[in-house]
Every structure is written in C-alpha cells, then in structure tokens.
Amino acid sequence: MGFTGHAFVDWDDTIAENIRYFREVEAQISLLIAGRTGFDRDEVQRRGAELDVAVARQMGLVRESLAVAWLTCYREFAGRAGRPVDPVVEAELRRLCAIPYETRQELLPGAAETLRWLHEAGFEVTIWTAGEDAVQRRKIQESGLTRWIHRQTVVPEKTAERLRDAIGDRDPGHCFVVGNSRHSDIRPALTLGVAAYHVDVETWAYDHLDVDEEDPNYHRLTHIGELPRLLAQRFRLAV
Ligand SMILES: [Mg+2]
C-alpha cells in the first residue's frame, strides 16, 4: 500500500478532551440529586459513578447509558428519602446527560501536531474509536483535523477481534495502536501482538485494567507529543 506503517489512533482523551465534559455534567447532576433528596453530594456522585460503569458494561458505549445510569441513581436516592420522583428533575437530568455527547471538544495539546506528523511521515492514519457512529464522526469532523486522517473506524466497543478486522490484510508488524485506555486500546493490541503506545492520562473507571507492561510491544507515553520520536526509532525515520 506504500505506507510507512499503519497508525490506529484513539480519539477521546487521546486526541480530544472528553472525560472532562462528563465529569462537569456529573458534578452538576450529583448536586441536583443531593439537593432534591437530602443526601450528601459525594455519596450521590460515588453511587452515580458506580452505576455509570455498570450500565455502560451492560448497554455498551451508547449515549443513552449515561441518562439511564443517572435516572436510576436519582430514583434510588428519592426512594431512600421517601420522596416522589419528580418528572421535572428527570427531564433536567436527561438534558444534562446529553451535553457531553453534543459538546464541541477541545483538542489536547500536541494532538494536531502529532496527527500531522504521522500523515507527513507517510503513515496511514486510522482513527480507531468506540461509541455511536454519528457522535464519533461528528466530533472528528468538527475537529478540523480530517486532512491528516485517512480513515475513521467507529465500533461499539474495542476488542481484539474488532481490531483484527480493522487491521485487515495490513502487516500487523507495521501496525500500532495509540490510546489512553488500557481496556480499549492497549489490551486488544497486545493480545494481537501489535505495538501499543499508551498515552497514560486520566481515564474513566470503565477503562481501568491491568496490562502487562513488561510486554515488549507496550510503550508508555506521558504525552502524545512523545510519539514521533518513538516511532522514528521504531521505523528508522528522521524526526
Ligand atoms: Mg480514549
């Protein structure tokens, strides 16, 4: 295919800010539920975060899961307080839960430069992202970075099998994954024996998992801007 190699680059919290929008909304929702039920805000937030992961594991990475988790949380605390569930509060929860999926994301520092470097160094750039197709494609489109991207692959959940499908007939020895999630980015890559560049930033509890960091295919980055130098070594390029 004439490419230097094939990059599979995660989107959320690797290229663009994402978890921040969820955290902001969750803080507002916890305050709202606490105010309406008399419980402590931290307790509400802890329970909501727990439900959020449980519901996402059950429903998959669909935008409805956030609202389902927080409506469940509200009903639980209302029940414990012996108060009726208020449809006005429920409507407000639904409105707040839509925000993280509709926000125009800010790019992370160094992300645009790194995508551009990959493209100019001759790598095939695939955005390898999980979630709802329309939501993920809109975010990528809005970023203004599509000129550095060859293809976009959106899957409901990232697994080793789906990564194998996305790699297709490319030489796995020339493929690598870049991402912030041990669960969604790193483990599937290591399972297939593909190089994994882990941008080790804060993640959602859903993504927490131990991976074998002794695996020679595992590489930790504290910042995506470190990627060009590491790839230049691996692929023997000038930076
Ligand atoms: Mg991510």
Automatic annotation (TrEMBL):
<dbReference type="InterPro" id="IPR023214">
    <property type="entry name" value="HAD_sf"/>
</dbReference>
<protein>
    <recommendedName>
        <fullName>HAD family hydrolase</fullName>
    </recommendedName>
</protein>
<dbReference type="InterPro" id="IPR036412">
    <property type="entry name" value="HAD-like_sf"/>
</dbReference>
<dbReference type="Pfam" id="PF00702">
    <property type="entry name" value="Hydrolase"/>
</dbReference>
<dbReference type="InterPro" id="IPR023198">
    <property type="entry name" value="PGP-like_dom2"/>
</dbReference>
